[in-house]
Design a protein that fits this description.
Strand content: over 45%
Largest sheet: 7 strands, antiparallel
Distance between the termini: 5 Å
Radius of gyration: 15 Å
Number of domains: 1
Length: about 150
């Protein structure tokens, strides 16, 4: 069973319009989708990134948004629950709320063989590069609702 981690980081993007016309075609595990026009394919910045795209910023944003599809290989990247737990640690909840209060978990199927679990978190993203390095400087991105998904196909 192939496992893909999908991470849409909405750092600096107020809204994303999902209009599927004229964009690049992305294929993952036999599933195909056309990216919205204006989203730009990029060379993945490391070996764990299967797909990397830039999404243009909108008025008022400081930077473009990045969409990344990770592939960790068989048995890599941890299980769904481990990823959800880790993703929640990467955000600060809005004042007066907990991460649990601002997190929404959805599970669904795509096609006949893809199981998807999406965690939608509203909060401030704690950006670090490299992400898991204890020495990486943390930068707080503006408060927006990123979406993180765990995808299994096969």
């Amino acid at each position: 069973m192939k496992r893909f981690g999908v991470w849409v980081l909405a750092a600096g993007l107020a809204s994303v319009g999902f209009v599927y016309a004229g964009g690049s075609v992305v294929e993952l595990g036999g599933l195909k989708a056309k990216a919205p026009e204006g989203w730009k394919m990029q060379e993945p910045s490391n070996k764990l990134r299967l797909v990397q795209m830039s999404i243009p910023k909108v008025d008022g944003d400081k930077e473009d948004t990045e969409l990344v599809v990770f592939y960790f290989g068989a048995g890599g990247g941890g299980g769904t629950e481990e990823n959800i737990k880790r993703w929640k640690t990467q955000f600060l909840a809005p004042e007066g709320k907990t991460i649990e209060e601002v997190s929404k978990l959805e599970k669904y199927k795509v096609g006949t063989g893809a199981d998807v679990v999406c965690l939608d978190i509203s909060g401030t993203y704690k950006y670090k590069f490299p992400p898991n390095s204890p020495n990486a400087k943390e930068e707080k991105k503006r408060e927006l609702p990123p979406l993180q998904c765990h995808f299994r196909h096969g």
